[in-house]
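Q: Sequence in, structure out?
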Amino acid sequence: MWSRTVETAVKLGFAVNRGSADGKVAPAADGTKPTFPVFSERPDVGTIIVAGSTVAIVTDDGDREIYVILGNTVTEFQFGMSDSSGAWIPATTGNYTGVQFLQSGVAGDVVKARAAQFKLP
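A: Exactly. Output:
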């Protein structure tokens, strides 16, 4: 896990990309850049973290379970990327993944996931 400064408000359990400078993150809008989940435990998913605050960004260094919010229907073990709001959706060809879902769910659900950063061919 890394800690980074929030450049533009983000929500716990949502996706972020690198911000305008090293050590900063901003909300992700799609899967075209390396994407990371903002660490969240079940009760705090969706909490807004304001600009200038520090958040924990989950990397695939460990096998930590986290909670993420869905922007579309997903299936257990599917890989996910960010949608335009930073919620998680099934990853598509040519995009970067940020998580692997450990539960199935539909848009708006909070599900368990683990970090999984790579680009789909």
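The radius of gyration is 13 Å.
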